[in-house]
Design a protein that fits this description.
Chain lengths: 285, 259
């Protein structure tokens, strides 16, 4: 049997590693890491998709169990909270469906982001792969889950004959911001949690708190005169830049300013940390 | 030399004064600290920030060119696997420099990246993607691996349900399907000879012969004698001896009787 499958020549065939501690050299290595991940996009998508199919392998509905359980949650919570808050179901249900689906993405992403590197330690220690690949895999996986859950939103809108109008297009800049932040969060938390193992539970409880204070199941207007406080809550403003357009509203300037400022801080921190500790992650996992 | 670099890649490994330190962060810090101090005293020191650091590799230098077959020997914990990982670019050295030219394949972990819940076909596809192969090549990889591992219809079943023989064959076929210029290999691969069929050994020998440079870490001196032209004896992270297989092996065996 003559087999001659050689490693792809397109991959950087020369490995040159020296501990160059200069700031610029570290930036270069971090950029190279990202570029390599971009080149491996097919691997990234496949890994993310296999993660999902694996979870639901052997079940009849497959990944649509995600859709179904979200639908059940939206349905029950929608009725109960509409009564509790004395609100019109027609008004409240689309809001809740959107909020729960979007928050589901944010919160799962953050929790799973903590395990970005620790869950794949075997892989990290057996071959050289760009570290951002593992972060991208988690982002893509959660985007796929989100795509399944969007069905619930569409169904609610169709049932209630709601149409958000042209304002919905303003969701696009919000989604771009989400994409950047998602990657940044996974890279940042992944590295921190690989080094300090007590961070994941802390993150878990922070996300739980954030769920209650970030106007996910209640409407911002319910705060009345205190509504301005929400502009300082990064979870709220980031949620709002995507949620408001889909409800037919435009997020205010304050919301956008806050979302952008928090995102800049997050991405900046994440980048600096990644450039600084990238070569240490293999020793931490 | 320049001409060779311009036309095609000439495989080469340059290791210059590599140092690798292992920080120990986890576990019950104090008791672990004490335990480590007692067992490997001398190689463990607390650094300036009071972290415990194991000096896994100390000032390792060597150059390998096309045709070189290097064996790494030494007791457990001498730094053989760490050195292989450093050459593979998994650990980046804290001092010194590693340069590896040519495509590289590191066989360090028998089940490297194999997910038991995925089917054989999916595992093969993933391995192809990890190596940056394009679709037509992945199809060829699948054919080659499936034929060698004799999976038959099992290729579409999760690896979890395979017999242990099938798992070994699949792992082996996957690891040996992609031919590198620089082959880094941990000992399990050759040491487990008894479990492999004659066919497996032929495939492996074929691969080793096909590689421009081989670096092999092992306990078994017989393997070193068969495969290696040069041997480095690692001891506590340092090079204890470096030379032709016969000279170093004689010194090594004289030092550690019973092997």
């Amino acid at each position: 049997m003559v087999v001659a499958i050689h490693s792809a020549a397109s991959r950087g065939n020369t490995l040159d590693l020296a501990p160059d501690l200069s700031f610029a050299a570290r930036q270069r290595m971090a950029v190279r890491d990202l570029a390599e991940t971009a080149r491996l996009w097919r691997l990234c998508g496949t890994l993310a998709w296999l993660d999902i199919t694996l979870r639901y392998r052997g079940s009849m509905l497959g990944p649509f169990w995600l859709t179904l359980s979200t639908a059940a949650m939206v349905g029950t919570m929608g009725v109960v909270y509409a009564i509790l808050f004395r609100m019109n179901v027609r008004d409240y249900l689309p809001f809740l469906a959107l909020s729960l689906v979007l928050w589901g993405y944010l919160s799962t992403l953050v929790t799973e982001g903590c395990l970005t590197y620790t869950l794949v330690e075997g892989m990290i220690r057996s071959m050289r792969m760009p570290y951002s690949l593992y972060a991208a895999r988690i982002v893509v996986r959660n985007l796929l889950v989100l795509a399944h859950n969007v069905v619930v939103i569409v169904a609610v809108y169709a049932l209630l004959r709601i149409w958000p109008g042209a304002n919905a297009l303003m969701v696009l800049p919000g989604l771009v911001l989400w994409l950047l932040d998602s990657l940044a969060v996974c890279v940042l938390l992944g590295a921190l949690c690989a080094r300090f193992r007590d961070i994941p539970p802390i993150v878990g409880s922070v996300m739980q708190m954030a769920f209650f204070i970030s106007a996910v199941i209640w409407k911002p207007a319910q705060l009345g005169a205190q509504e301005w406080v929400l502009a300082f809550n990064p979870f709220f403003t980031l949620l709002e830049v995507v949620r408001a357009p889909l409800l037919g509203d435009l997020p205010g300037l304050r919301v956008w300013a806050s979302a952008l400022a928090w995102s800049a801080a997050l991405c900046g921190t994440s980048w600096v940390l990644f450039a600084r500790v990238r070569d240490r992650i293999a020793f931490w996992v | 030399m320049d001409a060779a670099a311009a036309t095609g890649l000439q495989a080469a490994i340059d290791a210059e004064h590599i140092c690798v330190d292992f920080p120990l962060y986890h576990g019950n810090a104090r008791s672990l600290k004490r335990a480590v101090f007692r067992t490997v005293s001398g190689r463990v020191a607390a650094d300036t920030k009071h972290r415990v650091v194991v000096q896994a590799l100390r000032d390792i230098s060597f150059r390998l060119r096309r045709g070189d077959r290097l064996g790494l020997i030494g007791s457990n914990g001498a730094g053989k696997t760490t050195l292989l990982r450093t050459l593979a670019g998994i650990y980046e050295p804290q001092a010194g420099r590693v340069r590896v030219r040519g495509s590289l394949n590191a066989l360090l972990d028998p089940n490297l990246g194999m997910n038991p819940d995925l089917t054989g076909r999916e595992n093969i596809m993933l391995r192809g993607l990890y190596n940056g192969l394009k679709r037509p090549l992945i199809a060829r990889l699948e054919e080659d691996v499936a034929a060698f591992a004799e999976l038959g219809e099992f290729i579409d079943l999760p690896v979890r349900v395979y017999s242990s023989g099938m798992v070994v064959r699949l792992g082996f076929a996957l690891a040996t399907a992609i031919r590198p210029q620089v082959l880094l290999m941990d000992e399990w691969f050759l040491a487990g000879d008894a479990t492999f069929m004659e066919k497996a050994r032929m495939r492996l020998e074929d691969m080793v012969r096909g590689a421009d440079i081989l670096v092999l870490s092992t306990h078994v001196t017989e393997i070193v004698r068969t495969w290696c032209t040069r041997v480095i004896w690692l001891d506590q992270g340092r090079v204890r001896a470096d030379g032709s297989a016969e000279t170093v092996l004689t010194a090594y065996l004289g030092q550690t009787p019973g092997r």
